[in-house]
Amino acid sequence: MLTEIQEGKALNPVVKHITQEKINLYAEASGDFNPIHVDESFAAKTPLGGTIAHGMLNLAYVSEIMTSAFGQGWSSEGKLRAKFKEPARPGDTLTINGKIGCVEQKDDVSYANCSFECRNQKGETIVTAEAIVKFESDKK
Amino acid sequence: MSDKAITYEDLSVGYKFPPAIYELSASLVSKYLKAVDSAGDGFVPPLAITACAIAAMTGSFSLPSGTIAIHASQELEFFKPVPIGATIECHIRVAQKIARGKMGMLILEIEVFDKGKEKVQSGRATIALPT
Where along chain B do its domains lie? Predict the structure, then answer.
């Protein structure tokens, strides 16, 4: 977990490699077997030209960073807003960078506003997201 | 979950998808963590819960043959950590239905409760799909 929460502080980035095996596992775990994710012959005939990762799989990486940085504060009082810009495909390597944009104090409670970008190896933006989390502050 | 899939045309604002109940077993969470390549923190990852809720909706929704739906955006709010092994109930309601040429946008409200009927998360998903 973060020991110091400051405006502008970068959160530890994560780098993830997307494979069809992980997409299939995600489909099994979530129950989302939409053929665009798991049926390569179906997906090849669509405008996307092949299978893509579930958007929520890509977004899970943002949540992982928030859990690492803020612990259970994230799952007990977190807010997330995300836009899925481009699909991630098997073979892609995604890099997810995040930082604390601002820290707000409301009625003795502190909130960190964080922003994220998930890009593939070509530099294309796959997901953008904003997250807000409440945290214990030393400021009184 | 319903045995009969509903189509985009059949959906109207206020429609509630059949509630879905999931047991978030250790094996399910383990599979999820392997898929997202994460170690986890001993609780069910909040987005694993959202994923189940969305799957409950997509499983009872029918698209024209050969077409695809795209998850365009997602908003979420988390209210409490969920322990591994917990049972959750997912509710999804159509909040808005927007036609844009040959495409449609569905805005869905998601609410997830634990066994004690306490809300664990809520959110809104925007899904783009052919009409």
Answer: 6-130
Q: Which of B21, B23, B58, B73 to mutate to probe the A interface, most A CBs <10 Å?
A: B73
Question: Could you report the per-residue pLDDT of B10-66, keeping only the tens digit for each?
Answer: 889 999 999 999 999 999 999 999 999 999 889 999 999 999 998 888 777 787 777
How far does B97 lie from chain A, in Å, by closest CA?
Answer: 18
Assembly ipTM: 0.91
Domains and CATH numbers, chain A: 10-135 (3.10.129.10)
Q: Is any Cβ of chain A less than 8 angstroms from the Cβ of B84?
A: no
Q: What pTM does this model have?
A: 0.92
Q: What is the CATH number of domain B6-130?
A: 3.10.129.10
Q: Write out pLDDT tens, residues B69-84.
A: 889 999 999 999 999 9
Beta strands per DSSP E along B1-131? 6-7, 20-23, 61-62, 70-78, 87-100, 103-114, 119-130
Interface of A with B in 53-72 (CB under 8 A): 54-57, 59-61, 63-64, 67, 71-72
Is the sign of the CA dihedral B74, B80, B83, B85 positive or negative?
negative
